[in-house]
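Hi, here's the filled form for the chain we discussed.

Project: internal
Contact: R.S.
Residues: 142
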Amino acid sequence: MPQFKSTYNIMIRPDEDEVFNPDWMNSDKLVLPPKTKWTYDREMGIDDVDIWEVMHESSGGIGLYASWAPYAEFYLLTTGWLPIKEGQWANDKIFETYYGQGAQRKVVNRIKQLGLEKLIILPVHQTWVDSEDLWLHQKSTN
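And the returned structure, exactly as it came back:
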């Protein structure tokens, strides 16, 4: 079952609950939070996202989230706690965002670069993409 979190749940209080409505359990069908489509008329930022789909989350502050509301090619990668020196860690997670055309490929490459591909295991699925959004999944010409 998909899991969703608010920006507040990810950045400020990761120990608090996810975005969930108990009424969703009263259905024999999968019920998801409402989503609106992003217009891509400007660069998206973390503050623009109300709800994230949790793609992966593990201890040590490592996580991968995809923008759900609004729905867009926008990913938030938390790469773990910031090391200060040997054995000491800061209380702040490192946040990286990937937006727009090729964002999915860029975040997967970054996960590999960080050596997290054995921890963050992302299933590969064929997904229908509407023709007006196809440009987001093609290689950039620049």
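Let me know if anything looks off before we file it.
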